[in-house]
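Whiteboard transcription, Tuesday session. T.W. wrote the structure tokens on the left side:
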């Protein structure tokens, strides 16, 4: 739906929508958790389904007028199960953290012990970090990465799990560029009598595209967001073995949420259909190829990659060799039209709000159609900016070059003037 519908009602919001359209058109978006949805997904999220309240589950709603809402939710569920090979799917979580909360609520009680990857090692707040609900409601313990390789060490995980005997072991990352050994984690969980939760929010699209290991055969519950590499609307989704289906659905509703966002679920149904197309596998393969080339070129330019490289969409870059911190680098890159985020690296000597690294991701650029040649050009720009963070004339010149490249690859769903 055109943003022009907003103009006569609220010129201020219209101008902000227009400005964001231009920003997304003219910048190179390297936020690893961002992407572009298709125009079809955007249309569904902005559709009349936004008007409908559908508390409950298909066939068991608390309000009348549900035939279309029931049908679209059933469609999303069926497609989710098909794409990921799952016994059961719940498509109602509002986002990734609520999905994780639903998984914990289904498998354990407040006060139980949980184990997850620590935030400084590339984990997520909702995997047991102390300032998050998961660290407040549960006795949370974190594993990390090896100091030399910066890789997750399953021996360390096994030792911790054997020591604390958790009810739940979780595996999932937000700033870790390598494949995860789901089979190995499942073995550790089984040895300790623990449940395994796999959070694949960042890599769900890579799983759907066949370029990343699917944890569904190994984990009791798999959680994910529905945007990021999956390229759907902002939301969450949970997959599980049939034995956990009833407890999981009860945890999401009425345990944590009221009425689901049916417009969001309609958008997810479309995104899952898109993920079944052969073109989606090509897209997922290209995401990883782009990340590898970008990383290799950055190394040639004197930067260091955490773990030495990537298997995914994500690159964690240590800027220490260039003598610049992550935040000033990220700020300068944004002024040059290259949008990423500063990020801590494992064992970072700097504070989280002023870390040593930046995190880069290739999903959004890949969706726009960019490939290896564009990654090589992008790497040169990144090196140039990182080496000259205070040279405003150079940043402005780079932005003009960035904008020219960006406008050569139209962004799906973004309205142009």
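and on the right, the sequence the group agreed on:
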């Amino acid at each position: 739906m055109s943003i022009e519908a907003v103009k006569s009602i609220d010129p201020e919001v219209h101008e902000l929508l227009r400005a964001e359209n231009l920003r997304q058109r003219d910048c190179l978006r390297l936020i690893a958790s961002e992407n572009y949805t298709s125009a079809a997904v955007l249309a569904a999220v902005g559709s009349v389904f936004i008007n409908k309240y559908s508390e409950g589950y298909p066939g068991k709603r608390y309000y009348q007028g549900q035939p279309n809402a029931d049908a679209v939710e059933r469609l999303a569920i069926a497609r989710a199960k098909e794409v990921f090979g799952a016994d059961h799917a719940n498509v109602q979580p509002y986002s990734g953290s609520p999905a994780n909360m639903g998984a914990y609520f289904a498998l354990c009680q407040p006060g139980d012990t949980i184990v997850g990857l620590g935030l400084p090692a590339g984990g997520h707040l909702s995997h047991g970090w102390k300032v998050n609900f998961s660290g407040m409601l549960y006795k949370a313990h974190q594993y990390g990465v090896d100091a030399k390789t910066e890789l997750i060490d399953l021996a360390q995980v096994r030792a911790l799990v054997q020591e604390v005997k958790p009810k739940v072991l979780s595996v999932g990352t937000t700033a870790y560029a390598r494949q995860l050994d789901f089979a190995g984690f499942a073995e550790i969980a089984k040895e300790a009598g623990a449940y395994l939760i796999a959070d694949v929010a960042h890599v769900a699209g890579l799983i759907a595209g066949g370029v990343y290991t699917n944890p569904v055969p190994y984990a009791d519950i798999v959680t994910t967001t529905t945007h990021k590499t999956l390229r759907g609307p902002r939301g969450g989704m949970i997959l599980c073995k049939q034995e956990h289906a009833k407890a999981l659905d009860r945890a999401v509703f009425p345990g944590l949420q009221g009425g689901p966002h049916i417009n969001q679920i309609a958008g997810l149904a479309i995104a899952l259909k898109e993920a079944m197309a052969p073109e989606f596998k090509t897209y997922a393969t290209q995401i990883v190829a782009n990340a590898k080339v970008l990383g290799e070129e950055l190394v040639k330019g004197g930067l260091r990659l955490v773990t030495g490289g990537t298997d995914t969409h994500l690159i964690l870059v240590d800027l220490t060799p260039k003598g610049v911190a992550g935040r000033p680098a990220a700020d300068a890159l944004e002024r040059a039209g290259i949008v990423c985020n500063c990020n801590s690296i494992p064992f970072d000597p700097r504070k989280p709000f002023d870390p040593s690294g930046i995190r880069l991701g290739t999903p959004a650029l890949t969706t726009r159609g960019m490939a290896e040649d564009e990654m090589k050009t992008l790497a040169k720009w990144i090196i140039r900016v990182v080496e000259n963070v205070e040279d405003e004339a150079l940043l402005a010149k780079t932005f003009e070059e960035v904008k020219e490249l960006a406008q050569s690859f139209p962004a799906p769903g973004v309205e142009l003037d």
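Someone added at the bottom: The two ends are 15 Å apart (CA to CA).
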